[in-house]
Amino acid sequence: MNYEENIIRAIAYMENHLTKEISLEAIASQAYYSSFHFHRLFSAVTKETPGSYLRKRRLSQASHEILQSNKRILDIALDYQFQSQESFSRAFKKFLGVTPGQYRRSGLAQRTHFPKLTLDNLNHRYQGGISVEPEFKKMSAMKFIGMICSIDSQELPKLWETFIAQRNSITNLKNNICYSLCFHIEDNCTANSFLYMPCAEVNNIDNIPISMVAKTVPENEYAVFTHKGSLDKIKDTYEYIYGTWLSKSSYSSAGLYDFGMYNDDFSIENPEESRVYIHIPVAKET
Hints:
Blueprint: H1 3-15, H2 24-30, H3 35-46, H4 50-68, H5 73-79, H6 85-96, H7 100-106, H8 119-125, E1 135-139, E2 142-146, E3 149-150, H9 156-166, E4 173-184, E5 194-202, E6 213-217, E7 220-228, H10 234-248, E8 251-253, E9 257-262, E10 275-284
């Protein structure tokens, strides 16, 4: 699988649609991946989500027009797919530290604040990796009950505390293991549509506590990776899986989800020896 060419093709598509409405599904299709797999792969390789890359490129190009033209800032904002001048100004100030009006009056020399990624950029960012190989497991369909929030939420630690405190309210637990289910629910590359669900496996979903939700994942083959050490570094393991191993393996992502398993090997008290087992649904490429 030539992941570099696939990502560059998707980047070219985004570049051609900086002033047009665009969906994550349409971008991912240019790389021949599902939205879920593309989001994971793009983020691991470039260190940007597709949405953040697109937003920064739009703001960078908009900054050129602010200096080069006499167009109203509102018109520039609308051209680059911002819904209002206010939302554009907030994003612009967060990006460059000044408002669009201040930037226009500054007399600064034109520059590209966030350049288009090229193949050389990708090869530069795509260095190193973790020398781990997964174990492969065939697993039956699984049912989970848990609580949901955005995958990038600052509330994740609090959500875990709440879930652990209420876990015993689940009456049909299958085991004492905790899981973290990650999945994608909608197609909008500018919105955070990837969700995180601390959860427990259950025998059935007939009785769901009012503060929780249920999800079923289908039977699948999984590549199971072991993350050893602090949870602060687990993002590095995910970046290795999606940005290095999956790109170079003979497997492709085969689901709209992945999950971590926290069994007796997981320990908050002894993070050096703690282990989390990350399950990635895969299919052998033909």
